[in-house]
Amino acid sequence: MKPASPDHQPPADADARRARAPVICYPVGGLPAPDLALYRAARETARKIDEVTVPPRDARSFEVPAGGFFRITCTEGSQVGDLNLWNAADLSERFYSGKTRALHGTHLSTGDQLWSSFPALRPMATITRDTLDWYGFDSFGGAVHDVIGTRCDPYTHNLLQGGQYHHCCHSNLTRALAKARDLPPAKAEPHVHDVLNVFMCTGFTRDTGQYFMKTSPVRPGDYLELFAEIDLLGALSACPGGDCGAEHSSDSAACHPLRVEVFAPAKDALAGWTPPPPNGYDGSHGL
User: Fold this and answer.
1) Residue 201 — very low, low, confident or very high, per pLDDT cuts 50/70/90?
2) Residue 210 pLDDT greater than 90, yes or no
3) 103 vs 112, 206, 283, CA distance in Å?
4) Where are the domains of the chain?
5) What is the distance between the alpha carbons of residues 181 and 250, in angstroms, rounded to a whole number?
6) Which residues are 234's β-sheet partners?
């Protein structure tokens, strides 16, 4: 974070330097727009093919075929969840929160896509419904469904507070992936990655630029629904911070389960649609 009392005095043209207009790093006008009308029409034909309950302070995995939908629902009380996604056939292709943030912004909602890691760099999932889309940005700069937080983890917990805490989201996701793919924890952990913080309300403080969380506005019945652009393996952790209004990595916060439902549309509901191919860059890197 920036120092409260900098060591150097501002130059004479400091105000002029600060006044320079920002430039969007990645203009997204050239991105192919997802066909939300097609997806929503297909969703109307869909039937539920799986349902998973994620216990409080734990994680569970699920799979979604390309062209399917999955819905994450708050069921019993305000609760946030940390979501990881992988290509179901290749764990090395996984959700890339940093590039998703660069393309769509710090917080996601309807129409935004979750992009995969290099070299594939393609849409993995598209948000088709978000019952918290009304929230926008509040007076603190907070918003819902962020791609800025990294997931609570036992290493940072040990660094800041000491001790061994095993039910943070990183460890929860590691256990879920290990079980899903029959991997020892040491093999599963490197595949766990930065998350979509589902239902979490976060932002950056205006004075110090520090990442903050505040009480989630989610209530029972609220949901986030996504369309699977490729075959997906997912894992969702019900964060030990509950609604994250006070702390995370906590055994004292009120925590609740989350529900994941998977839906498959009718056979011809996505006529003409195909999964996006991997990125077209040739990989030569100028050599």
Assistant:
1) very high
2) yes
3) 9, 22, 21
4) 48-255
5) 28
6) 62, 85
